[in-house]
Every structure is written in C-alpha cells, then in structure tokens.
Amino acid sequence: MDPTNAALIGGLAGVLLGSMSVFSVRVSERSQRRMAHPPAAPAIPDGASAVLAVLGSSALVLDRGERVVNNSPEAAALGLIRGDRLIEPTLLTLVRQVLRDGEIREVEVEIPATAHRAPNWLHVRMAPLLDAHVLVLVDDRTSAHRVEEVRRDFVVNVSHELKTPVGGLSLLAEAIADARDDPEAVERFASRIQLESARLGKLIKEIVDLSRLQSADGLTEARRVRIADVVREAIEISQVEAQAKDIRIVERVDPATVVDGDLSLLVTAVRNLIGNAISYSPAGTEVGIGAAIGADAVTITVTDHGRGIPPAEQERIFERFYRGDAARSRATGGTGLGLAIVKHICANHGGGVSVWSREGQGSTFTIRLPLPEARITISHPVEGNAA
C-alpha cells in the first residue's frame, strides 16, 4: 500500500475511534442523569382547563404531591382549595387512597358548618388520571338536601301545628261541657277556645297565602303604591302587639317613595317583618322602620334590638316552617311561615329580601323592590290612602 494512503487511512481510523469514545462517554453521562432524575409525571394536556370548565360537576386535578394542578371555577367557589392545596381533610384522605391503590371512589360527604358557613353536602367521585394524578368531581347536593329538609319540616310542622290547636279545642269543649254549671270556668275555657281558634285560623291562612304566592308567576295588575301608606297600615296592625311589650315603633319613611305593586301584599310583607321584630325584641326597646329611594331600587328596612340570628341560620330563615328556636316560636305564636311569605311577596314584585344580623345586637331585614316604571306618571291612580 502506498505510504501516503496508509497514513491517511490510519488518521481517519483514529478520528473515528475518538468520536466513538466521546459518544460513548456522553451516552453514559445521559444514562446516569436519567437514573439520578426519574422521568417527570405526564403533564396535564393543554386543553384540560377547557374540559374542566364545561363539566357539570366541579372538578379538580391533583398530582402525587397532593398539589392542585388544575381546577374548574366552581371548585374554587365551593371553598375546597386554598392556593394549590385541597383544604378539606375528608376529601384529602380519599385522594391519598386513590393515589395509593388506583381505585375509583364515590362517596357522599357532609362538610360541617363553621361560624361563617352553613353545612354543605357534596357528592364526590375520584379516579386515577394519567397514572400520576387524581381527578376529583364534586356535585353540590346542598340545595337538594335542604329541599328534603323543608319537605320533612313541612310535614312535621303542619301535623304538629294542626294537631295542637285541634286537640286543644276538643279538650276545651269537653271541659266546658263538664263545667256547664260553673260560669267562671266556662268563660275561662271559652277564651282559650278563642285563642286556639285564632291560632288555627292564622296557620291555615298563612298556608293558603303561601301556596297562592308560590303558584303565581308575578303580579297580574300592578298599581302605583306609596310606601308611606304601606308602612302606616302595617304599623297600625302591629300596635297591639307592640304596646303589650312596651315596644316603640319608630318610622322614618321618605314620603316620595313609591313602587308599582299590590298594596295588600306589601302590607303583609312589612307587617310580618314588624311582627317578627316585636316577637324577638326585649320589652321596652324600639323597632325601626325606614324606606328610601336608592340608585337602583326602593328599600324598606325593619330593625330590631333583639338577640340576633346565628350566621349558620341566616340562609335558612326564609324557608317554609324553618324556626331557629322552635320552642320560642311556638311561645310567641309563630308558625315559621312569615318570612317565607315575605320572600315570595318580594319575588312576585321582582325584588328580594335579605338580612343582616349579629348575635346580641339585633337584626335588620331589608326589602328591595324595583324602581317604579318611568312610563307610569303620578297622575295615575295611587293605591292607598290619600297623602
């Protein structure tokens, strides 16, 4: 072989061997790095957020470090997460079980009440996702549970409220028959019959009124109503109760406040709020009624200085037959329907009712009604007394 060619071939071989050595070293280094740093968990696909957003359930995705790596807006609204952590201990325990054994789980969970939140009932489904994540689907069943509670309370309370006065009337009738030769006893038992009859009549009337309000889609004929007339009539009806407890009713109503609605229904709503304020206020205090025109609504407020309403009960007090203190409500003649009637009257007028309360300081109920239609002028008939 020519010496020049031999030298050239030898040089090429040396370069090739050197390149192979360098390549081998780099492959070895990469293998060592892989062993030192295991492959990362599969990433959540980019479209996951869009999928979670359209799910009917609230959804969260957690990784093996128990960090929330994705969630739907509804999950955050339920207060289940803080930052990137699931803060509900019961759900976190279930997540760990799914990460451990990879089995799908489905449970019903009650989230206990706190000082600022009523209890919640959640239907939870969990499943492993992409081998290193857990998908959590949460359905809020709180409303369904409360509807069932309302139904159960309705049956229990109606049965009790009807049975008590009917049984009382029967016993009092027997007592009158046995005491027919004692005029004083007959008079005493007759007055008790009147009280029980009035209680029974009030309950039946409120059940009928509430049923009518719930079946109505709205007001069939709205007329211009002066709120001053509504408040004045409601106060007149409540004066006997107020005087019996030495409670002064203070009125501060803007005389220009008017709405389009039904005078008798609005009187009923305000009367129910005043009656509640009187019932739950200590003797010798004041109940305030105010009305004013706001930027976007007419407001009517009823304020008392009673014992207040616990935060956990404030969301439920407008439910039918719900009574935070059933024994006290029965003692004051309450049926648990008054605030439910207020709620439906306001809804039928296109408005609503809310409550602010602090235990030991009292409560303020606020009715908000739409501003009157601009096309209706004051020259039209105004329902109520003349100003």
Strand portion: 15-25%
What is the share of helical residues? 40-55%
Give the radius of gyration: 35 Å
> The biggest beta sheet, please?
5 strands, antiparallel
Helix-strand pattern, N to C?
HHEEHEEHEEEHHEHEEHEEHHHEEE
What class, by secondary structure content? alpha+beta
**Total beta strands:** 15
Question: Care to describe what's here?
Answer:
There is one protein chain. The chain has helices at 3-36, 48-54, 73-77, 89-101, 142-178, 183-215, 227-244, 263-279, 311-314, 326-331, 338-348, and strands at 58-63, 68-71, 81-82, 85-86, 105-111, 120-129, 133-140, 223-226, 248-253, 258-261, 286-293, 298-303, 352-358, 362-369, 382-383. 48% of the residues lie in helices and 22% in strands. With 387 residues, the protein is of the alpha+beta class. Strand 5 (105-111) and strand 6 form a beta hairpin. It starts with a helix and ends with a strand.
Descriptive keywords:
alpha+beta, five-stranded antiparallel β-sheet, 387 residues, 11 helices, five-stranded mixed β-sheet
In short:
The chain is of the alpha+beta class and 387 residues long. Helix content is 48%, strand content 22%.
How is this fold's topology laid out?
Layout: H1 3-36, H2 48-54, E1 58-63, E2 68-71, H3 73-77, E3 81-82, E4 85-86, H4 89-101, E5 105-111, E6 120-129, E7 133-140, H5 142-178, H6 183-215, E8 223-226, H7 227-244, E9 248-253, E10 258-261, H8 263-279, E11 286-293, E12 298-303, H9 311-314, H10 326-331, H11 338-348, E13 352-358, E14 362-369, E15 382-383
Parallel strand pairs: 8-15, 9-11
Antiparallel strand pairs: 1-2, 1-7, 3-4, 5-6, 6-7, 8-10, 11-12, 12-14, 13-14
